[in-house]
Amino acid sequence: MFSLSKKQHVVRLCVGKHCFFKTSSITMQTCRDVTEPIDRSYKADMPRPLVDTETIITVALEAMEEPSAGPLTARRLATRLKCSTRTLYQQMGKQEQLISALLNHYFVQKTPQLDPGLDWKGAIGTWSEEFRLAILARPNLSRHLSTENRPALIEFTRPLLAALIAAQLSESVAVEVCRSLVHVIVSLTLGELETQSHRYDETAIVGDHLTRLLSIDANAYERSPDGKTPPPVFLQSIQWLIGGIELQQQIQVART
Fold this sequence. Notes:
It contains 10 helices and 2 strands; from the N terminus they run ββαααααααααα. By secondary structure, the protein is mainly α.
């Protein structure tokens, strides 16, 4: 049904010096069904429903590792999620908070299960290789492992700390070992990524003998084609750390 309404208009007619006023009625047609109620519950400025956190993290992790896509921005992520950047900020906060959430989520999922039968040296070796592989699997994300974001590695490091304490290392020594290993492995693995993507000709290095010796690190970062076997510099560094810890333990035993 359509409704008809009449609207009154006053028309002024002037003839010479005399003016006359006439009222006219104009019939207007509206296009709304009068039997249909008006829904005023929707407002154009109402916020859209929030996207659940798990979906945001999953999509963000995939988008971050896309080749040649550039840095992950709020606009690019919002486009992938088909939501507004405002909705994204409401759910995840600023860019730094999003990165922290991604790191925490990823490394918690990658937390290794160490064999209880391993001694402390075996636990360090196994955990170190698992940590390296986790970094290599998400290189763009792992490049954000700055000092501020290291708390994301707490859960990942927990099994190693428990193994070291179970092996009779004191809690203070075990914590220092974990802290040193995290710093060394992050540095070595990110260096491995950079060296693999920016190789240089060592034979073209100009300088004296010591300069050339200090510049031949590309071969030290050489790894297996699939990346699973760590490069020599990685294995050697971990062995040196284990050797230093073992020596310290022997010194402490001798003093007691």
